[in-house]
Amino acid sequence: MSNQIGRLAQILRTKPRVITKAVFWSIPHNSGKEDIRLKLGRYKKTDELEIDNPKSELTLDNEEFQALIHFLQIHYEPFRTGTKAFIPLDKPFVRENAEQIKALFDLPEKKELLEFIVKNKIIPTDLVVGLQTVERHRAIKNFERMLQSDLKEHNWQKWFEENDWVLGSEFVRVLDERQIDTRNISDFLMEAYDGFLDIIEIKRPEGELQFWASKTDHGNYIPSNDLIKAITQASKYIYEVEREANSVKFLEKVDNVKTIKPRCSLIFGRSFDWNTDQKEAYRIINSSFHNINILTYDHVLARAKRIVGLKKDS
Q: Are residues 61 and 195 in the same domain?
């Protein structure tokens, strides 16, 4: 049970015919919970206030009343002085402030924004590094979740495009162009650290694609037909890129990145359950190519974890 006690009233304003009045009170509860309420009303001015027949009246329960107090404490003074957006430093990490920060970083003038941030040292270096690390940790977790799903190739293309750092320090950037010629479209054309063009080709890790043939040959693990087809396709891309090396049109499409002896990184299959012989066979196969490097999705995951300093099994 609860009943009303502790009542305080205050006339806020008196007009010739109307009185504005505020009343708040405390309602005790057996649980000891605080329950303070506020009533605001306008009443006809008579010898006695017509409380039973107000011109207008609003009652706020405890939750609404506390929210109003919070709103006034935070927003009144900045609003009074004309400030349209601000972040209260006594409570910086609340959801409302996130919207203010996002509004700043969503400004269309990205170049000017970056120059302003750098010039005024708004974001310290350790915070920049920390943000990058957190984002990469999130990307790795997403990569692991994706490996548990039967996703199409375009999903993986999107992940690698957003996280090209995982491909290694030998690559500077993903080029906007993917088309080599009218018949050949790679997954990614990359600018390597030496300024030359390289190729990334990925095959989805799920589905029917197998890395190893179903049977060994004289006790040796050999590539599956799926892998041989992927290697052949990668070799074809390399050949076609070399053919386009002197094409003015092609060079314009790839931002004039030089094309001499391109290499291809082929991302294919899984290796988390390989035995020792399979790992050795992989090493031997990979060493036989001078311009193609084969990585499994588990190799990529291990590389990503190493880059951000995570343990292999974390």
A: no
What pLDDT is recorded for position 45? 77
Q: How many CB atoms lie within 10 A of CB 187?
A: 21
CA distance 127 to 119: 16
CA–CA distance, 252 with 262 (Å, rounded to integer): 17
The answer to whether the CB of 165 falls within 8 A of the CB of 231 is no
What is the DSSP code (8-state) at residue 17? S
* CA 100 to mean position of chain CA atoms: 18
**51 token code pair:** 């409380």
* Alpha-carbon span 287 to 281, nearest angstrom: 10
d(CA 214, CA 141): 31
178: nearest Cα among 160, 165, 151: 160
Task: Name the band, by pLDDT with cuts 50, 70 and 90, for residue 314.
Answer: low
Ranges 51-60, 88-97, 217-226, 280-289: which has the least confidence: 88-97
Domain annotation covers residue 144: yes
Which residues does residue 29 pair with via DSSP β-bridges, in sequence order? 2
Q: State yes or no: pLDDT of 2 exceeds 50.
A: no
DSSP result, 7-40: EEEEEEEE-SSEEEEEEEEE--BTT----EEEEE
Count of domains for the chain: 3
Instruction: Give helix 125-147 / helix 297-308 axis angle, nearest 10°.
Output: 160
Host domain of residue 97: 91-122
3-state secondary structure of 296: coil
173 lies in the same domain as 268: yes
Whole-number Å distance between alpha carbons of 268 and 292: 12
Helix (H) or strand (E) holding 87: none
